[in-house]
């Protein structure tokens, strides 16, 4: 006798029988998993028979541009050249050290079409940091720019992306070269993406062609018919920028690339006006800056209709200020990770009004909320660690069996390390990072909650809360604060303001003023750096 599928609440997506939350988004079919297919071939297959003639990319620094026909032609030409001249083929690992530029998407997609594994790294990393990343990923080939190549080890001779040789590769290969010269399976590794390392050493997440296909397919249900001109204010070496660029290509949209990123506010505003930007990718610090800049008011009369915010939590108070200042612009928050792609997102004005949330589960994502003490699955409105499962979840960490053991449970669920809950309408809320919770006596204090309260104060530009060692309590909450220029707000003002709004154990008990909050490229606060600074007794140097 066939069993009926478990009941799923059509409002929350929760199944009481399995204690699992399900996506309620319109499903987008994936290609059969048994079908040989590279991500490049999948992406190009989504294009119309006649490639769109408008621009795919514009470099805001140089004015250089690339049309969609040229993009596809150069992908094939570069793949042909890399294969015939350098012997790059399936399984080779290409380490890429470059700021965002027009050549990077071409290089990514060419390498993926050959079955090579792309490994993008932050060009701002130090030589010692890069040496560790190279040790982890074991590259067979290197790509860099004239400005970044000196950071690579002496024994490495990279192909320079800004050299005449590379330019000849873009133009002299066979433009009709098949995007799948080698049989590539969807389960084959496609990329090694380095995690932000906010709570420890950077890890290398291996993702397959299938993983990337699932992420991009899942976004097809989000605003499927719109064509935007996007201002890309995130680096392409980071997973958020990487997936955003691939999503833009899938939609045949125009992307304006900004280097350096994000640059001064005046530059952002002028570029938005010059290129008639309708969509902007932004991390929380930029959203905060938009609410505090008089120059940003020029955006009110621009074509801008959407700001996509991700990479780190955004305080509801900041979102409220943004919505009040820009009532015709959707502030669309989302949540994802290097390891799992896009987990949730907001779609449309109604969802964007759900302040504090990061949207609803993306297509084909399953989730559980696990109790921190009992490891039992929880229900609607209950807080615990978020576990996720789906076709976008990574293969695993490269060369780190211990990290893989900690990351996955016995049923293949990925432990995100984030404390979350779902409401009765299926919206996901992030409370804080599990490893960043402050242990005050017998209580756990969420830094994000206190940061959101601090952002209510107009005299505070940025804030970060970290644990500070205490002989009796174990840890106490300490705030690092960036004051608005000219502000006279003091330590007592801040401590008193927060104390009126939280339970006694959550009170901020120590404050230090600082010029800038250290963050990752995606905008996540590097609390461990601030905690180390506080614990080292170096506060007098601030």
From TrEMBL:
<comment type="similarity">
    <text>Belongs to the ATP-dependent AMP-binding enzyme family.</text>
</comment>
<keyword id="KW-0436">Ligase</keyword>
<dbReference type="InterPro" id="IPR042099">
    <property type="entry name" value="ANL_N_sf"/>
</dbReference>
<dbReference type="InterPro" id="IPR045851">
    <property type="entry name" value="AMP-bd_C_sf"/>
</dbReference>
<dbReference type="GO" id="GO:0005524">
    <property type="term" value="F:ATP binding"/>
</dbReference>
<keyword id="KW-0547">Nucleotide-binding</keyword>
<keyword id="KW-0067">ATP-binding</keyword>
<feature type="domain" description="AMP-dependent synthetase/ligase">
    <location>
        <begin position="49"/>
        <end position="397"/>
    </location>
</feature>
<dbReference type="GO" id="GO:0016207">
    <property type="term" value="F:4-coumarate-CoA ligase activity"/>
</dbReference>
<dbReference type="Pfam" id="PF13193">
    <property type="entry name" value="AMP-binding_C"/>
</dbReference>
<dbReference type="Pfam" id="PF00501">
    <property type="entry name" value="AMP-binding"/>
</dbReference>
<dbReference type="InterPro" id="IPR025110">
    <property type="entry name" value="AMP-bd_C"/>
</dbReference>
<dbReference type="InterPro" id="IPR000873">
    <property type="entry name" value="AMP-dep_synth/lig_dom"/>
</dbReference>
<feature type="domain" description="AMP-binding enzyme C-terminal">
    <location>
        <begin position="449"/>
        <end position="524"/>
    </location>
</feature>
<protein>
    <recommendedName>
        <fullName>4-coumarate--CoA ligase</fullName>
        <ecNumber>6.2.1.12</ecNumber>
    </recommendedName>
</protein>
